[in-house]
Every structure is written in C-alpha cells, then in structure tokens.
Amino acid sequence: MVKSAICEMLGIEYPVFQGGMAWIADGKLAAAVSDGGGLGIIAAGNAPGDYVRSQIQVAKRITSKPIGLNIMLLSPFADEVAKVAVEEGVAVITTGAGNPSKYIKDWLAAGIKVIPVVASVAMAKLMTRLGASALIAEGGESGGHVGELTTMVLTPQICDATTLPVIAAGGIADGRGVAAAFMLGACGVQMGTRFLSAKECAIHPVYKEKILKATDLCTMVTGKRLGHPVRSLRTQFARAYAKAEYGGMPDEELEALATGALRLAVQEGDNEKGCFLSGQIAAIVKKEQPAAEIVKEVMMEAEPILLRAKEWVK
C-alpha cells in the first residue's frame, strides 16, 4: 500500500485527510476516518469553543488514533478555538479562510502539527518560514471557500516553493485523483466531498441524496463580490444568491442572506434557504459507504495506477 512522509509524521496508515467541513465534520465522522487509517478532522467552522471541545471529546471517546481540527480563521470564535485546540491536545491543526500566523508559535510549542491550507505560492512560502509542519494545496475545484487556481496548477507550484510535505486538495475523490496528486509532487490528499457520502456523515438525507445524484455541472461559485468565494451545489438558494450578488443588493444584506445557510442545508435539507457545499468532483461519488472503506478504497485504486506509471517511464 502507498506510504509517504506524511504517514510517518502523523502516525497514520494512509496519506488521506478528511476535509474540515463546517457543521459537517464532527467528532464521529473524524473518529471514523482516523480509525480507518486516515486523518479525521473536526471542523470548528463558526462554532464557539464549547462546541468544538465537545466534538474533540466525542472523537477521543471513539478512537485513540490522531485527530485533527480545522479552524476557519474568519470565525469570530477563532481565538477561543485556538486555545481549545491546545487545551485538548489535538494532534493536528489545519487552517482555512485566513492567515494563521499569530497562532502558529503557540500551537507548535504545544506539540501540535500545523498544516495550513494555502491557495497561493506566496502564502505557502510564508507558512514555510513560520514553521508549518506541512501544507495543504487546495485548488478551486473544492467545496466551501475557494481560491482562483486549480489543483493541477497549484499543487506542483506549491511543491516547488517549499521543502515541506504537501497534501493536494480539490477535485480528488477516488484513486485516480490520488495518483494524479502524487504525480504532481504531493505526498497525500485531502478529500471533503467524498466523505459527504460516508455512513458516519450526519448531514440531512436530502443533502446526501443531492451529492449522490450530482452531475458534472452541478456546482457554482458565489460570494466573489464580498471577497470570500464559496463553491456549492447549484440549488435554488445558490441561484437566488448569485442573482442578488450581481443585482445590486447592499453588502450587509448579502452577508445576512448567507448567514446560517450552511446549517439549514446540513441539519434541515432546506433547498430554498440552505447552502449545500460541494466540490466539482461530486459527480463521481455514487454510493454511501463507511468512512474507513472510503479511505482504503481510494488507496487501493491508486496503487496500481502508480505502479503502471512507473512502467510507462522505463
């Protein structure tokens, strides 16, 4: 089975991270992924510290394997959650939607591996200088907050810009994607959308059904006007938001329109007011299965592809 430097660094069996999806990646899902040999990651999202602490403790009761925590730096609770991560002794912190510079020193001092999500070479170089343990190069194919560059363009540039291990993210959901990431220079992958189909993923049945029935043109990006673009399924809410975004709605009203929309999708399956985050790769996710099975399956699919690639270059 494929191994890499990130496996040795984190003490995991497979170089597969589960994405930190806000209001989706809870303690149960993260524990299931970690028990399956990958790195399960709890998402802090916009949640307060007490909620995040409870989810970390849920995961610890289920598994003794390493657990990660994703901190969305735009959250008003980011400072609070940063302290909770240290107090609870999580193994890994990943960050998104911002610059984690002010936290890195304290996290490293606590023995936490710090792996920021980066969407540009400049950010990769900064995180490398500040002592990050590894980097997640996330392309715009991913769900949630996205950058401009695609995974195929971004990953090799990040690999060239740093000596740190690089995990590729965005548009990866099977062994072909894993193999492609390794060919681009990554030593691991992060998958979010694929784990929406996990049995342990507690999203509303309507949400899960939308993912399983998705097509190649099922997603769209909104939020560019406010500087925080987000990729989601092309639903009634997404279309209405896009219309408002480019129809002159004031910024404050536009912000309010999106407030709570993800929770409505996750918890209630609300198609009218809910934002169903999804990466472009949703179209190849066709079945619900245990998280551990997903981790093993993608790595088993990747191995023969990588072996064939070695033969091709002889």
Q: What would you say about this model in short?
A:
By secondary structure, the protein is of the alpha/beta class. The protein has 13 helices and eleven strands.
Description:
The protein has 314 residues and is α/β, with parallel strands linked by helices. Helix content is 43%, strand content 15%. The protein is built from 13 helices and eleven strands. The protein has helices at 5-10, 27-35, 49-62, 78-88, 101-109, 121-129, 151-161, 175-183, 205-212, 236-245, 251-258, 261-268, 291-312, and strands at residues 16-18, 40-43, 67-72, 92-96, 113-118, 135-138, 144-145, 166-169, 188-191, 219-222, 230-233. An eight-stranded parallel sheet has the order 1-9-8-6-5-4-3-2. Strands 7-11-10 form a three-stranded antiparallel sheet, covered by helices on one side. Strand 4, helix 5 (101-109) and strand 5 (113-118) form a beta-alpha-beta unit. Helix 3 (49-62) packs parallel to helix 4 and helix 8 (175-183) crosses helix 13 (291-312). The radius of gyration is 18 Å and the shape is globular. The model has no long low-confidence stretch (mean pLDDT 94).
